[in-house]
Amino acid sequence: MSQANQKSIQSSESYSPKDKPEIFHLLDHYGKQTFSEKLAILPQGSGTPPTRGKIENIHRLYYADKGENFMFDGCMRGVLEALGEDPSIYNYDLMMAICGDMFTQMYRKGGESDCLMDNCFAPEVALHAFQLCGYESIFFTRDELNSHSNEIMDIIKKSILRNAPLISIGVGNIPVTKEDGEKVWNGTTPIVNKTVEVPFASIIGGYEDDNLFANVWLEEAMVEENGYTKVHNALSSSKGLLVVGNKMTAPTLQSVYHGIINTLPVYLTLPGKNGYSFGKRAFYEWADNIRSKEILAVNDKWNMHFAPAVILYTNAGRAREFFNRVIDLCPDYELAIKLKPLYEKAVDLNNELDKLQGGFDFDAERFAENDFNIAHTDILYKLGDLQDEILKVFSE
Q: Which of 197, 230, 313, 371 is at a distance of 20 to 30 A from 218, taking alpha carbons?
């Protein structure tokens, strides 16, 4: 099958709504604050922090066994829970929606795909997410972590003492078990065999002198019973640190839902980043690499097909249920009413894909079969075109 059999994409990335969502203003403002201006936003506290502090009401980050595939979203859930927000409302699924991961299909040929906030972390999205939940927040960049290390450590300690965990985008020097998974202990002290780094978001929930207590998703990590790993020089691999500030207001759930839905076009029209494509373009590039049978020539079939399929499978049903919850609470919300059938259509197409494949675990060599290949990629192209249908709702 030649390249001529592929569909050409009409990009939606020029979309520009009349009433710009708040996140656009954050995009304009982000990066213009000085370190001193950021400090002024945070609660200052007083006196010298004690040598040790730890937030105890954080459980270990979940992962696949709880269906929580996306790291930043899980961290945000944990932070809000520690701040006293109702975990039955500010749960993982709501974090997926607030951060846009629930609605963002992504694809990178030959590269792993998890979600927007894990693979292509966007500080302005994180700031907007906490803003929707009623909190100020600040993101310190890698350069600021390097050039203001003493001030950053003071910020961490003061944040912990006010029961506000921090989120580090990456943690280094994590002590782990032996490769066979057997922990080695000497009394109550683990004997560290080696250390690794985690590139994704992790919670910083405590400190002891200059060591930090990190809540990471890593099965091999040496953890205490409450889920923390004590790490020396933990921020050595951090791409940046998110600190939650004062609570500005207590938003209604209705206002949170409206904020999420008004921001949807941003995630459907994201420009490419770090080799990733998003929205309609992601579905088309995914389909093109199958229809051209390029996938048959590579060993990494997981990232060529199955990784983006996990994103689709994870998001489709959850997005539909999100709109069900929105309409249950806001039965007259016209925009949600118009969008709901489109996200139901996404579930139907996902189910068609699953039926065609005979389940998620199938032999990718079947893409050599023309009929199977065409039927499969036709569904992916339809999912891509569906992104345009969703965008049209916002232009009506």
A: 313
Q: Count CB-CB contacts under 10 A for residue 40.
A: 11
Please report the pLDDT score of residue 298 as a whole number.
78
Between CA 10 and CA 18, with CA 16 as vertex, the angle to 5 degrees is: 140
Comparing CA positions, the residue from 266, 265, 257, 258 lying closest to residue 392 is: 265
> Contacts for 10-13 with beta carbons within 8 Å, 24 or more apart?
10/388, 11/280, 11/281, 12/268, 12/269, 12/279, 12/280, 12/387, 12/388, 12/391, 13/269, 13/270, 13/271, 13/281
Residues with Cβ within 8 Å of residue 51, at least 6 apart in sequence: 208, 209
Q: Which residues of the chain have pLDDT under 70?
A: 1-31, 59, 62-67, 177-193, 225-226
Round to whole Å and give the CA distance between 131 and 285: 33
> Taking a C-beta distance cutoff of 8 angstroms, is the pair 383, 283 a contact?
yes
CB atoms within 10 A of CB 239: 17
Look up residue 343 and give its two tokens. 């996200």
Fold of 22-247: Cathepsin B; Chain A (3.90.70)
Q: What is the pLDDT of residue 378?
A: 97
Could you tell me the residue ranges of all domains in the chain?
A: 22-247, 272-395
Whether the Cβ atoms of residue 204 and residue 166 lie closer than 8 Å to each other:
yes
Would you state the pLDDT for residue 6? 65
Closest CA to 237 of 184, 193, 190, 198: 198
